[in-house]
Batch of 4 targets.
Target 1
Amino acid sequence: MPGNLTSRERMRRALRGQPTDRPALAYLFLGGARHVLGHVGRRMNEAYGDPHLMAATQAAAAELFEHDSAMVPWGCLTVEAEAFGCRIEKLEDYYPRVTGRPLEEDRNLARLSDPDPSSSGRMPLVLDALSRLRQRSGDDLFIVALVVSPFLVACELRGMAKLLTDFINDPPYVESLFQRVTEGTERYLLAILRTGACDAVLFENPGVCRELMGPHHLDRFVLPYHRRLLETARREAPEVFLIEHNCSNTPYLEEILELDIDAISFAYGDVRAIGAEHGWDCHAKHTSANACLDRYCLRPRDTARAVAWVGNVDNTQVLLGASPEEVFREARACIESARGAPFVLSTGCEIPFKAPAENIRALARAARAGH
């Protein structure tokens, strides 16, 4: 068993299913932001507008909570949307939000900007922050770049309800919109990879779920454009891990597992399939402060490739309202149930900003307890 691994090497080995000194622990977005921002003495709007502070907050989070990974950008899902033409309001104590959508009232695609990663919106800040974080952490931290899927970017530009209506009423328009969005996002993805700073790209894609669309719309509108981004990343940087993040209640998990990805970061797994096969209510169990002691969602699956699981401690009720010991039990249940599969301990999605610091530290304590 290897000993004294760096965080970077621990994450790499865990994602490949290789032996590690202890379970790897991944950090999503800016979990526990109140504590992290307090540590660096800044507000959200200050930290998100300065590449030095964007890097510093992630370094601070690793110091405070002992995670093996860091993420840039850390939680704002509007970087791409802003570059395409959305109006953004910067908030003092939360992520920037969309206040104006270029296609909401006028569907003319000529209203969209064509993003240039070197100059559009906050894209240059992200590229600079990635490089700064790598320089700061050296060969220690495992650095993850966040890229929003074309579906979610299109939702911001058009509005989700109107876009889903377009799925039915005007499929050719949707395809033209997705083509345009994918081209711009692809340029941004290439610029991220060419910094040489990141070990992985996490694609934010909870839209791949049954709550929003049927399988025919998934196959026509979502997966083809997402596959294009994955193919671009593989060609440009084959050594970079590709991680799919889907925290929805009913993800199209089997379809995700067929993609060319190395890992899936998830909250509940395929809730319907698990319930049908095992009579197990993942959502109810994972949001119980008594902790979910059996994890059907983490059982190894019969797939052609060994896709790693990243998750899936409940990030809301347990991290926010349970005791540190209950968080510890929840995390240990994940570790024990995932034996036999490539696995990285994490939360199902972002830890709430105001989650107690001792609850967040209980995750590291569970990882230090070993395999």
Target 2
Amino acid sequence: MKYRIFGKTNLKVSEIGYGTWQIANDPHMWVGATKEESKKSLAKYLELGGNFIDTAWVYGYSEEKPERHPSEELVGEFIKESNNRERVVIATKVAPANWHWPAWKTDKLSDCFPSEHIKKQVDDSLKSLQVDFIDLVQFHVWNDSWSDEQEWKDTIQEIIKSGKVKNWGISINDYQPSNCLKTLDTGLISTVQFIYNVFHQKPVEKLLPYAKEHNIGLIARVPLDEGGLSGKIDSNTTFQEGDFRSSYFSSDRLLELEERIEELSCLLSEEIQSVSELALRFILTHPEISCVIPGMRKIKHVIDNTAVSDKGSLSSTLMEELKKHSWERNFYPDDAKDPNMADTNFLEI
């Protein structure tokens, strides 16, 4: 496993991080995970050199048990039982108070992140994770229009002084990679988590150059396009009840995905064994990116994904070829759309 400096946090993180949304058996998003298998997968991840675990207050949330935070609790149990706190960098997220994912253009800071809401969620996460401090807490959505407001600035600086949180970051709105640059100019945000993959390449235009110049740690999420770039989903794929991908990948989208994966498969060689390897190496070829966080529910996923760190960068010729495979789109259902962005459906243009 190779490691990279995590921007101005100066933490050293493994190139392959561990995304934990999938392991929480989220009743409305990702279903099918078990606690036993998830803990074994986490153990294998640490055994193979991984040290960055990304979770969130909301992962696994259920209206029946709103006080529970299943993903954080599972991570906390694992770390305590294995006595590995000093080996891992823990990142979590504060959920927006109004439950808008992504944040709407008209949302105010007071709608999403009032001071007392931030403080309470940090305390919740500390309790769920069973730790004295959290290495990184991220706002789970963001609007750059909030960059000049003083409340969030005072709040996060107060929390840092308390010792509860070491660094603050932003998990920016899906498909809006520039909706944070003014906020980064404040100097108070150390990291950005953003969607980046072979299909969604827009972050390379503005975010990556900014991060390189200003030493911002970058976490690439959805690297396999919710499984689309795993090479294991085709037009015949069906999903379990409760798995959001049943709407994310409708029948016509599955057909187009299958065609695009066939095109990517033509780029495989003795050096590149699978589409998922190609997708992860595409991201890690950018030195500005600190780590990539695929979801890994099974031990096999952990073994396959962590092995990519040893494979190195792709050639400049192949990286240029992959630019042709950009597929800028998103699949938000109608009831999740921001009515103020009806023409673009959240896409940054």
Target 3
Amino acid sequence: MPPSLNVFRSIRSTIGRCLLGGAVLLLSIRPAAGQEAYDPEAVDNAIARALDYLAGQQAEEGFWRTDAWGESTAITSLAVMAFLSAGHVPDEGPYGKQVAKGVRWVVSQQQPNGMFVHKNHSHGPMYSHGICTLMIAEAAGMVPGPDATAVRRALENGIRLILEAQTVNKYDRHKGGWRYQIDSRDSDLSVTGWQVMALRAAKDIGCDVPVESIEAAIDYVKQCSVHNNAGFGYQPGNGATPTLTGTGIACLEVCGAHHTEETLGGAEWLVKNPLQESSSYFYYGVYYTGVGMFKVGGDPADANKRHLAGILLPIQEEDGSWIPKHGSEKNAGKVYATSLSVLGLAIDYRYLPIYQR
């Protein structure tokens, strides 16, 4: 089990926000006795096996499939990001062909309004769109030759749609966030997370993302913080879960709202209530708790890294995959779970721009 947190509460009460003389105060969690040793070589081997599995699952056209719904822009984008996170770029190296084909297929599926979603599979399209736009933003600077212009144009259209969806006339408690549909009047933290990550990644490579949009997203994410900053919930007023707490922390950190009271409280809660394989949306949580706690830095990041590896490595299948066993993740299937597992395990490589501190 991960360690208990013993200093966050006193830090918040005596110092408040952890900015002192312009430097971010480092947080401290001490590993508990008996915590699993972290074996970098074992993690590297797990990632290598997983990528070999993913390469074998790609269709000739370039896409990857869900188990239940067939080809998917979102699943394809997660798989592409898994390769990128391990340092594999389009048209170079052992997986360059797979990565390039995946990027091209996702771009080819963009709809006239800018939405990245397969025309036959549109349930919760903003989920798919946020994931795909994030992938395109991460890949844009790596795509060589004539594809670079098409990818950049697709990214700009995708970002425009995200910004437009945010400005829909929403109910007061939901302003600044996103929901399943472009014109949804409410918001939730789960969908919002992918849009925030996409906006941040796009801004990092020079896309026009208004400061006001980032600030509005920060305000919404903070509203999803539970009373006394004890984690983050699905929507304002909901209880905390490990997966959504990781999402909230990641959103605030990538938006530049570093070590806020909501983040520190969420990190404290997450260490006391860590992600488990039985947690709702476990593999989704592997990604977001991994990114969120990595951004927090220091001992919290190290403790969470060890915790995730301690769960994931023993349950990896012989073929290199991970199998989701609960809820809608089970329908999303092995490519989904394997891609998110790689994304969670490969954070320390820092190959994806969004992973930079």
Target 4
Amino acid sequence: MGEKSHKRNTGRIVFLSLLTLALLTLAAGMVYARFGGFGTGSCADTKEFAKYAGSVADITVPEQVRIVALGEATHGNAEFQQLKLEVFKVMVERYGIRAFALEGDYGSCRAVNEYIHGGPGTAQEAAAAIGFTLYRTEQMAQLIAWMRDYNETAEQGEDLRFYGFDMQRMDWNYHFLTKAAERLEVDASALEQLWDDKAGRPADSVGSEQWASAIQEVKIGLLQHEGTEVDVHCANVLLQNCELGRAMASNTEGMTVRDKYMAENVRWILEQEEALGNEIIFLAAHNGHIERQHAYGSEGKAMGNLLSDEFGEAYYAIGTDFYRSRCNLPKSNGKRFNHTFYSHDPLAKASKKCGYEISWLDFAKVPDNSALKQQIVDYTWMGSVGEGYTPFLSLLPMSYRVWASPAKLFDGMIFVAHAHPTAPSAIAQHQE
């Protein structure tokens, strides 16, 4: 064999070797991105899991509980939205809960509350009024429709109420505040002059302090009248929104402020229900907001952490997780699409291997001498997908997982084997 031929063969071998290596690396990268690792994680003891797992209908809460919080591992899966209705039904029928509180703005959820008490429109339009695409789903419409149907035959004082405890939007809070001012002849002209009807927010030229001052003037006027608690709360939520806007320059500070005010609003909802003779409420939000231990930075605490500190064992947190999620979420350009995630939660994997599509595990019912108990206590990776997609979610799977002890975050968990994407609609917001 000649020298030139030998060099050509050597070059071909090197090229093919590099190509093979590149293809193997690409394949490995695709597997890693798909499963969030080279596999789907470890599995908890399936025999022990099957011994203590049950269905959503088996959920019970201790007698001293005053707040039952249901989390969702993602905002974009149909099963987690459907669980809101299924768990709430159990709470209504077994514990007499009459209040459903959502991670949505108070004013927009007040609009939903009017609908479930016989207001105009459809359940789909009521869901759209909440103002977030993630709630414009058939599952949310079914929850709202069920509450309306329940109220049609409920005895006096036994009706269900729909609350919101967030403060990210302004339109419905402004709507109800100005309507109350008109009804009670409170001067709201200064506030109305600052509002841009077309944009559904204060005019761009309006400063935060000017806007807050105008809200405060209307609030003071309403406080001169009795029975204005719900209208004054609209003013308070608008003021919270002002503070949130100032804090959003820092993501950590913004999240801390938001969760602090959400916790305050949950307390207010509980007080409203106590005044009606109800001692317990139900709320639904992302896992990250309802966890007993969740912090932003070194000092900021999540809503569930704050409520747990205040109410102790009277706060009951139900977390959720998935084995596999085909999740609907938006890209940076706002367009929504479906993406697959794996949680690597050994409890979720055990639930799936036991044949459950959905299962409930009450941590308190698992004895300390069970092998499963240690797996509940140990730190592990759990799924936690927010409302937004970036390529980092595929390149760095830990960015959509939480490393924590399930027992420290929740009192029990619901596991979904295969979570399917929601299908948000383009229903226009309904407003009178």
